[in-house]
Specification:
The protein is of the alpha+beta class and about 55 residues long. It has one helix at about 35-50, and strands at about 5-10, 15-25, 30-35. The protein has a three-stranded antiparallel beta sheet, with no helix packed on it. Strand 2 (about 15-25) and strand 3 (about 30-35) form a beta hairpin. The longest helix has 13 residues, at about 35-50.
Length: about 55
């Protein structure tokens, strides 16, 4: 099974910006995964090192 995942910046109801991994499970359902700052930076560094890395 393959799941599309993207790293997105969103804005909370209070106006605060945050980053979240969005997993597209079906055409109608997405799961938000909240990561710690270090985990987000790790994903960003891996993306820049590999051309075929998933789109985060």
């Amino acid at each position: 099974m393959e799941v599309k995942a993207t790293l997105e910046e969103k804005v909370s109801k209070n106006g605060n910006k945050y980053q979240v991994v969005v997993l597209k499970l079906t055409d109608n359902y997405e799961k938000l995964v909240f990561l710690e700052k270090a985990e987000i930076e790790l994903l960003k560094s891996l993306e820049s090192k590999f051309d075929d890395f998933p789109s985060f």
